[in-house]
Amino acid sequence: MEVLLRARELAKARKHRESRALVERAEPESAEELSLAASVLIQLRDPEAALPLAERAVRLAPDDWQGWVAFADADLLLRRVDAAVAAARVAVRLAPDEAAPHRALGAALNKVLGCGREARQELKRAKELGAAARRC
Known about the structure:
Blueprint: H1 2-12, H2 16-26, H3 31-43, H4 47-60, H5 65-77, H6 81-94, H7 99-109, H8 116-135
Helix pairs in contact: 1-2, 1-3, 3-4, 3-5, 4-5, 5-6, 5-7, 6-7, 7-8
């Protein structure tokens, strides 16, 4: 897990080569590790590599919202908007008080014609939850 956390830090610092090397070395097995590895690969703009990890995470722990968010983010980058919306809706249902599922749903809905209002509401909710989490 520590290797994946370091990979996430490196990805945020735009050290993509080093981050990818750590993800490839990590060999994630748990749903939490798989979700984290998928999210790092999404940050690295590699949804093709992230999607199978997110799918495995969801199969291992279907009640864990983080896997569904990774699944939604990968699908969105792959322009599979309907699948992204569906996965993000599951994540919101599982974790209505977390910012990331609302962000994922808002981003996906933003790509659906006629869903702009709902997308804005979800993004606003994500921002509210993110702000609340930073104050705690």
